Amino acid sequence: IKTDRFYACESTDMVLVASDSLIFLHFDWSTTVRYIGNLDGQGKPLNGSNNYQIEFDIPPPVLGFWSLTMYDGTNKLLVDNRINRYSIGDRTEGIQYGDDGSLKIHIRNEKPNGDDAQNWLPAPEGPFYLVIRAYNAKPEVFNGSWSPPPIQKFE
């Protein structure tokens, strides 16, 4: 399923289930959804030489938890970075939501200034991709009334 440059992967994607199963041995995968994004909102490949943001009007609706994880586009591994942040989500300490519950995540190689640094997911210098995982997702995720926003490039 394609949703604005993210592709939804259902729990029947055995490679993703197997990789997640190494971490979560006793989990009901029938309520887990993964979205994979490797293009920005204009259809261009994601690259750490650019600055991006994802602005969620409503973060992924879940009964469990959700995360947005950064992977290196070359070696497919987590992105090593100076703050040791490999993902950001509802369990991220210090994350800042808007007064209306919205959430803006900054995706870039260099640390942003001021309060934006709280919601920073460090990117590598080159290509990368993102995976949103929604564990124990609410019906809105499955019926299509919620989908991830596009990854917006900005200067």
Keywords for this structure?
10 strands, 6-stranded antiparallel β-sheet, 30% strand, 155 residues, 8% helix, globular, mainly beta
Major sheet: size, sense and barrel closure? 6 strands, antiparallel
Distance between the termini: 30 Å
Q: Quote the average pLDDT.
A: 86
Give me the number of helical elements. Answer: 2
- Sequence of secondary-structure elements: EEHEEEEEEEHE
Q: Approximately how much helix is present in the residues?
A: under 10%
Q: Supply Rg.
A: 15 Å
Low-confidence stretches: 11-19, 21-25
Number of strands: 10
Q: Quote the beta fraction.
A: 25-35%
Provide the structure class.
Answer: mainly beta
Per the principal axes of the C-alpha atoms, what is the gross shape?
Answer: globular
Strand order of the largest sheet: 1-2-3-9-5-6
Helix-strand layout with pairing:
Blueprint: E1 2-3, E2 6-9, H1 14-21, E3 33-37, E4 51-56, E5 66-72, E6 87-89, E7 103-108, E8 120-122, E9 128-134, H2 139-143, E10 152-154
Parallel strand pairs: 7-8
Antiparallel strand pairs: 1-2, 2-3, 3-9, 4-7, 4-10, 5-6, 5-9
